Amino acid sequence: MNVPENLLYTKDHEWLRVEGNIGYVGVTDFAQGELGDIVFIEIETVGETLKKEEVFGTIEAVKTVSDMFMPVSGEILELNPALEETPDVVNKDPYGKGWMIKIKITNPSETGSLLSPEQYKALL
Fold first, then answer.
1. What does each C-alpha distance from 89 to 20, 22, 24, 47, 108 come to in angstroms?
2. Model confidence pTM above 0.90
3. Number of neighbours of residue 30 by Cβ within 10 angstroms
4. I need a labelling partner for 29 at 20 to 30 A (CA). Which of 6, 14, 47, 87 fits?
5. Percent share of the chain, pLDDT over 70
6. What's the whole-number average pLDDT of the chain?
C-alpha cells in the first residue's frame, strides 16, 4: 500500500498536497484499489468555493459510483485535464498524474484536522 509521506489524508480516502495556499486533491491508492477500474470522473464544481467535507465530484468505476469530498475548504481552481480522456490514470498514478482538482485553500487551519501518513496507515 502506497502512502506518500508528503501528503495529508482524510478518513474518506482523499489526499491533499499543500503548496503554499494552493492544494492538490486526489484519491488514495487504497481508494482506487477498492473501486477497481475507473471509467469516468465527474467534477462540475470548478470555480465554486466549497466547505470541508462537501462533495466536489463523483468517481465512477466498473463496480460502483462514489462521491469525492473536499479535505479542506477552498475554491476549486482547476480540474486535472488528463481525467477527461484517460480517467484510468487514477488507477495507474493516484498521487501523481491522477490528481483530481487544484484548489485555493481558504482556511489553512483545517489542515490540522487531516490525518498524517502514519494515522492514515493505522486507519487502513
1. 26, 22, 16, 23, 29
2. yes
3. 18
4. 47
5. 100
6. 97
**Residue 91 included in any domain:** yes
Asked if residue 4 is part of any domain, the answer here is no
Domain that holds residue 61: 9-108
Which residues are CB-neighbours of 95 under 8 A, at least 6 positions away? 2, 4, 7, 15, 26, 28, 29
CATH of the domain at 87: 2.40.50.100
Cα–Cα distance for residue pair 20/13, rounded to 1 Å? 22
Q: Is 98 part of any domain? A: yes
How many CB atoms lie under 10 A from the CB of residue 18? 17
CA distances to 13, 19, 85 from 39, in Å: 19, 29, 10
Number of domains in the chain: 1
Q: Which of 2, 19, 24 is nearest to 102 (CA)?
A: 24
Asked if residue 27 belongs to a domain, the reply is: yes
pLDDT 10s digits, 48-87:
999 999 999 999 999 899 999 999 999 999 999 999 999 9
